[in-house]
Amino acid sequence: MARLLSLLCLCLVGQVLGQDMPYEEFIAQIQACPKECRCPANFPRAVYCDNKGLKSIPNIPPHTWYLYLQNNLIEVLSADALRNATELRWLNLNRNKINTNGVQEGALSAMSHLAHLYMDENLLSSVPSPLPASLEHLRLSRNRISSIPSRVFIGLDKLNLLDLQGNKLMDDDVTEVSLKGLTNLVQINLAKNQLSSMPIGLPPSTTQLFLDGNNIEKIPAGYFKDLPNVAFLRLNHNKLGSDGVPTNVFNFSSIMDLQLSHNQLTEVPFIPSGLEQLHLDHNNIKTVSGANICPVAAEAMDDDNDSVPRLRYLRLDGNTIKPPIPRDVVLCFRLLRSIVI
After folding, report:
1. What is the pTM of this model?
2. What pLDDT, on the 0 to 100 scale, is given for residue 271?
3. Are 6 and 14 in contact (CB under 8 A)?
4. What residue spans of 128-189 are helical by DSSP H?
5. Are 165 and 195 a contacting pair, CB within 8 Å?
6. At a CB cut-off of 8 Å and minimum separation 6, what does 296 contact?
7. Alpha-carbon torsion 325, 326, 329, 332, what sign?
8. In terms of DSSP bridges, do strands 161-163 and 137-139 run parallel, antiparallel, or are they unpaired?
9. Residue 97 pLDDT > 90, yes or no?
10. Could you give the CA distance from residue 93 to residue 72 in angstroms, rounded to a whole number?
11. Which one-letter DSSP state was computed for residue 43?
């Protein structure tokens, strides 16, 4: 009877803890767990090797989907160490010491299921190549990246998030050639680089564009004509003056959230009807007038609010504007829920 109960429990454990894994794979996965790492039985496809002071990648069990190697001292991304880990979906290598030469050829491209690659805070000087076609999220922030190899993104049709913030990219590094292949990109983060102009060659699919902390002084007229889907635009902490922001440059229907804090603006830019959040704090704006910034004539607004501008949040603190907000501003933006001044 005891043996029967033991076998019954073993079967139940295999079914419950193995989750979507066959029991034999579950056992093999747990037994192959590297001694330096932790392989929880209730999450058998994950291997935790983070915060272990590792200088190299241990041999990874073959049925691993999620591999956590952040906060170590790893210098080389070895194809040999990952040769069995062909089922990886998620690889976290944040905060190691990997430079571009330390990414061995084929180490990444061999992982045909890899969707999420995180290599923030390493020593990379270039975007690693080649990359697997399965990739959806690529995070390379706070490295030393100063170049994007041509054609590095060719074939990455699934990539929708590219994070390159906190690197050393200049205008000539972010071009139509270097970004070619990003046909389904949704979010690109180029904040805290060394850009002095708006990047060219961004794909039309771009929805979230983050450019904070650069040296951008002007936005070309018609810049967003080829970017019809931009809904979230961040240009905080740049060098934009009102003469560098053409009158109707933000007049496109997709924009919902516009952030221009910590610039050198002296006037409130044109506010499109669909905009919901506008950050203009810490500029040099002295006055605000509904007659100048309201995108809809008062007589064109109906009682059902269908034609009323959608602005709900407006931040103006850190300027020289003194309260109260003019009545014509409030009448125009009647959906406003919060004004910070």
Report:
1. 0.91
2. 93
3. no
4. none
5. no
6. 273, 307, 308, 309, 332
7. positive
8. parallel
9. yes
10. 8
11. S
